[in-house]
């Protein structure tokens, strides 16, 4: 797939899945704008980094304006910034802990998508890909705020897709299974924990970030021009095993 000189914005680009999406896009000749609360971790002539929190509505609006006026049409957006749950039963969660995850994983997707969509609409084309999770559908204890946010991302994806369909802008999401990233490294570096997770995956292995980035790239490409409002589970078959 070639994205030659197409401009794509990627949130969460300093680590894990977002970073793999940014790097895979750069390999495919795209120009990438990275947005992450952390510092830049990609050195490439066609990569520009903004250190900003996706929850900061006014800053995200200003960055989107700046990117559009400096570099022109925005062809794609990947919403990959996210944090994990606080790993507690919901009745022990503080309101700040709840808000933390909902605002980062769900409201952050709304904010960035809103300002990017406003730039895509006059151009009548564009692709938005949101990163959800298997926890939007298959639940485990002590993950309520994370599951609610990721289920929200699936719903938000389909609802935004309907608002943007008249402008030929497609919105889809990818729901990864267990993926080896900064978020999960502690668990998967532990051989027994890794094995117990791998035993649950029909494909027999934890995903690498690149496995997820490949699906994101497909959804950003013109090969996916007729897919809209969908969530693709990229989980090695985890969610279909009964
Ligand atoms: N790793 C997995 O197994 C897995 C599985 C399913 C879904 N996901 C989802 O994939 C996405 C990426 O996670 P990852 O596993 O690559 O984790 P990661 O920790 O490696 O990367 C997440 C990135 O998001 C950035 N970020 C966090 N909060 C932010 C904020 N408020 N504003 C801007 N940037 C922020 C972090 O700085 C980091 O660079 C997340 O939405 C996560 O929920 C991960």
From TrEMBL:
GO terms for molecular function: oxidoreductase activity, acting on the CH-OH group of donors, NAD or NADP as acceptor; quinone binding. Keywords: Oxidoreductase. This is Oxidoreductase. It comes from Paenibacillus stellifer. The keyword Transcription does not apply. InterPro entries: NAD(P)-bd_dom_sf (IPR036291), SDR_fam (IPR002347). SUPFAM superfamilies: NAD(P)-binding Rossmann-fold domains (SSF51735). Pfam families: adh_short_C2 (PF13561). Belongs to the short-chain dehydrogenases/reductases (SDR) family.
């Amino acid at each position: 797939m070639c994205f030659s000189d197409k401009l794509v914005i990627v949130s969460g680009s300093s680590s894990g899945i977002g970073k793999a999406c940014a790097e895979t896009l750069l390999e495919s000749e795209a120009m990438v704008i990275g947005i992450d609360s952390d510092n830049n971790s990609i050195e490439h002539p066609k990569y520009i980094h903004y250190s900003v929190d996706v929850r900061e509505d006014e800053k995200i609006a200003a960055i989107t304006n700046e990117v559009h006026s400096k570099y022109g049409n925005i062809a794609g957006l990947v919403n990959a910034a996210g944090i994990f749950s606080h790993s507690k039963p919901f009745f022990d969660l503080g309101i700040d802990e709840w808000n933390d995850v909902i605002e980062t994983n769900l409201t952050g997707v709304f904010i960035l998508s809103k300002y990017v969509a406003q730039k895509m609409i006059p151009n009548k084309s564009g692709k938005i890909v949101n990163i959800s999770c298997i926890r939007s559908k298959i639940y485990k204890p002590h993950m309520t705020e994370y599951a609610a946010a990721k289920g929200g991302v699936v719903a938000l994806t389909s609802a935004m897709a309907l608002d943007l369909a008249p402008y030929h802008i497609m919105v889809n999401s990818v729901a990864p299974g267990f993926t080896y990233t900064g978020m999960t490294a502690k668990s998967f570096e532990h051989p027994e924990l890794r094995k117990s997770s791998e035993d649950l995956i029909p494909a027999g292995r934890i995903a690498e970030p690149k496995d997820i980035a490949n699906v994101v790239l497909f959804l950003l490409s013109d090969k996916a021009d007729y897919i809209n409002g969908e969530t693709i589970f990229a989980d090695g078959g985890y969610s279909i095993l009964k």
